[in-house]
Amino acid sequence: MKTYSSTEIQNIVGITRGQLNHWINQGLIEPFEDVCGRGKSRVLNDNNLLETLLCKILTEGVSGVKTWAGALRLIRNEDFKKYAFLVWDQISWRLIKQGELINTVGQKPILVFRLKSLIDEFNSIRNPA
Hints:
By secondary structure, the chain is α+β, with helices and mostly antiparallel strands.
């Protein structure tokens, strides 16, 4: 399993140290190894890179850190690679398989995130051409 420093994750994803620390402090990203103390740094892994990418995407589409927590929990607890979409219906997050209908009757507008785009971006970062 590949590991990264906080600085590497910040540079790869294009975020600030403050953003990464905020997401970690909010429990949205759970570092692979969270070392405390002066001169020590966190060790992050591929899962953390994926969580960070998702946090960045969510900041652009959904307001409220508490809302994102549900998406990240879902991604952590499911084999999300077998799903095509991550859907927010203003109430909860759902993972939807390719070809599965998304029922929106009587619901507020939804946001749909294409997981393939997230996975492709993740893979391009891990395995640059």
